[in-house]
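Lecture 7 notes. Example A: sequence first, then its structure tokens.
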Amino acid sequence: MSWIAACSDEVLAAAASKGLVLRAAKDVEAGRVEGSQVEGQTVTLGASLAASRCTCPAVGLCRHILAVVIQERGRAGQEAQEAGEPEALPDLEELRAFAGADWAEAVELARKGGVLAGQTVMLAPGDSVTFPRGRPLKEAVHKGPRRARLAIVAAGLVRAGHPLPEAAEVAPEPLVTLSMLDAVQEALAAATLALAAGNLALARDRLFTMALAARIEATPRLASDLRSLAARLDPDAMRQAGFTPTEALAALARAHALAEALRRFPDDPALTGTLSRRFTGQGPREMGFVGVETWRNASGARGVSFYLVDLGSGQVHQATDARGAGGEPGFSPETALRQTLWGLGDGLGLMGKRLHFPDAALAPDGGLALSQRAELRGGLAPEALSPLSDWSGLGALLRAGRGAGLRRRAGPIAVLLAPKHCETPAFDPFSQETHMAVSDGAHGLDLTLPQGLNGQESRIAAVLVALESATRGRLLSVWIKGHAAPFAMGHQPLPILAGWRALLTRVLRPVVAPPEADRGIALLAGRATERALVQLSAPGTEFSPDLVAEAEARGLALAARLMRACDGGTGPALRLVAALETLGELD
């Protein structure tokens, strides 16, 4: 059977996405496919689906390739024939030969079982493998954090229902090994000493080398932390206060504590991290499109995020199209921003629109799948979004959404707020950022703005904020009174007020400074972190007794004990700073 005949819709959806397959099928139905030509693009079918190419700028499988495959499959008239053919499942020897050195680990993975749905096998760790009928194992489509060959063999054993061997010939090597964690912690300790001595280049090189050596498929979170640290340990960033030495020490301590936790819980996904999300249908949902941003982080990942508010629960869901460090070099967040979402339009065009999802596909962390169907239900007023007007529970909201300690999910939490007072944005030449203080009348927030508000701070009805703490966040979008849709701050400039109106707005604007938050524990943690860095750079100096006494007075017995244990060595200092980072979450 040819590979084209074996490419059912299920196989195509696994290789690309369900939404892309639906768009390609519509192209075929509309008669846009003429031989190998689709809307001016030329498709060259190779020896397999993965080997096929198109002249369009898209990287990987595009809808033009899928459309030609669907056209050729239907023209051959083999789809109905395929459905009636008995399927030849691979035998044990074929699977063993394909597995090679992964055979023992694949057998153990197959013992955990899997769920068979059509041609797809869902494995317990979160992998999926789809088998084209009658095609070799190497053409199976794999998605998930495991190695492809390992997952394909394990899924093949589950799918064929073969009795598994009583014991694997070679015990599988654990993904998270003690030797790897030892090497990571040694590199972190060396980088800590280099930081204390002011040798940032040495610290950066040690961490970058270790990030390349770490087994990314086993600990993507730890490897990402190491890459991010290596990128941020830059003298220019330090001089511009983009990343202070105390922040660098805190980040080193967090990575060291994560490696220590992985020794005890090597299979905890909250600690190891994951490379892909699993989405499941959660029933019909009405959502409002309220924000969009492109981003790049220090570890090298980049992408675009779209924000929608569930009109029933008020929860903000995030749909993200992103690539990891070094993945798909041709991917651009700015280009992805203009992609058509759910067949309705691009992100900027959907701002302020009401969307209906017949069966919203959501991930456990609230992420919204881009490959699904939605319907446009008109415009959306800010009142329908029910933004929070009382901010007293933001700290609890953050802890509930992100978790705490080492199991805290990375990144901020998006929330829709209704501010009562907004100060005039001010540019900080030291950090090269624009900040704006906002308040609900009792609780204040310091927001970082991607660009100015053109004098319209007093006309804000609602803001979408990415909260980093209960007192600090990043402004994503803003709803200005009198406008039908919110503005994406990073991509849509606000209109400038007419002259006399702008002057009148500034004169009449009430200047109400938001109250200061109680930052006692955070201030204590910052002072203790600074002292630990000084002690590392000048061995023999004692830890301040005043700080120890203050920690005890606040009931922080663990922090006080770790302060006393600091003797100038990297281990005690890293343990103390990691504990102080966790305590800082209480503010």
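Example B, a different protein, same format:
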Amino acid sequence: MKDPTFNLVPDPLFNMQADLVVLAATVVILFSVLLRRRWKQSPLVNIPGPPPVSLWKGNLPQIFDVNGWDFPANIAAKYGRVAKMRGLFGKEILYVSDPRVLRRVLLNFPPPPMVVESHNLLNGSGLLGTAGAQHRRQRKMLNPLFGAKHLKGFTSMFFQKSQKLRDTILYELGVDENPRVLNIHYWFARLTLEIISQAAFGRSMDPLDSKDSAHPYTVAIRAVLPTALPLSVFRLFTPYFKYLGPKSLRRWLVHTVPWPNLNEMGRLVDLIYRTAVSTYENKKTIDLDDPSHKDVMSVLLNANMRASKEDHLPENEVISQMGTLTFAAHDTTPNAISRITWDLAKNPKSSTWIIPDPSQLYDDLMALPYLDAVLREGLRLHAPVAMLQRRADADTTIPLWKPITGKDKSEITTINVAKGTDFILVVYSAQRDKEIWGEDALEFRPERWLSPLPESVADAALPGVYYQLLPFGGGFKSCIGFKHAELQMKVTLYTLLSAFKFEATKDEVVWNMHMVATPGVKGIEGVQLPMKISKL
């Protein structure tokens, strides 16, 4: 079977001279576009913003600084909820936390090609690596598999896995006898991948015991983000890779160029793809009409066989969903649980909601008001994905929620946006905006969700699929698995916080502003969140 997932697969013949001609032509086109951009009057000329810090990277080093948590707040304070910045080679970027603009952009505009193509390189033509009609066809097929009706059947499995982790911490790691300091993020990550493996593919890949005995697939998935971080510059150029020549040359470059992280990423993608193919081939040998096969892959294959010609997904797209679904949740969910646990440890008065009965079913669990409030507040204050990227695919005019002051000191109430304009949607700022959430917007206070929210929240109308929040995005590219993530987070918090007391250690914990916010300890490499755990 050809490898449709990693777009650097071998191609037996290629013409090096032709490749060089294509590359040279691409460079000429790029510079001509840059020149035209300089000559053409931009409709954003009056939008204020900070000067670029790099000739070719613009403000990107500030926007994507791993320690740059103060940057969004400083921009909002100085320029308002809309600011103009510069991206690669001087391209204009609108840096936005205005809720009206967020709504218009998320409901209408797609991610830029860089985002789609980078996901396509990692996981092929799955939900994250497709756009337009292809994405809509996949979404139509997958939507029923992530609704509450289908998800309810997994509630007991979610509890079983969370309870297995609880017992491992108690008995194998010795917390039953004495408090211990554990890297709790490591365990949340293992639990997340095991739950995804069971729910999405119907197979166990981690026994959740005291040894790191997970399947090589889950080990590879955990390694993707740390390996990808040094490749951020590489990611900017993904839309242009197709001009570098045939797939054989591109694959050879990935495995041969003396760049260890790039070489390792190629190895990880190969392993993830091979596991996806083997899982897919195994699914084709089972009775898919058997109701016991309710995992996403089995139900998807069954539905796909019965789909009309126009809705049917080709084999490579079905296979690509495995890596896509795993990748989408493998860092966001454990990082969110880690952050909420850390916040609760620092705010012990907020963790008095524990209920001794661990046998709640789906509807009962979802109805626990304080658990729900804790989750909403954690995702509001610390969204795992701090920023979203979109690109305008048409000229448009967007009204602002609140006016900003232009460079000429005039009041700006609408912005004119040209086709091709890039947006960075600052979820982090929108969910901490005091004019929306109140003067205590920077405080972790779950109680705010137990009484009516300020009218400004309804007026702002953030377009999130999860209440009026954006941790799972909004619009047609929102996270399809947000109900799955919500259930896992609630089950995990409910199970572990009913059994343990979590306390912060003396380690200086830092939260890195990566593509997904990750915890670490200052001066120590690696993703980790050490916490003192005691038996209740």
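Note on Example B: Residues 16-390+424-535 form a domain with the Cytochrome p450 fold (CATH 1.10.630.10). Residues 1-19 have pLDDT under 50 and may be disordered.
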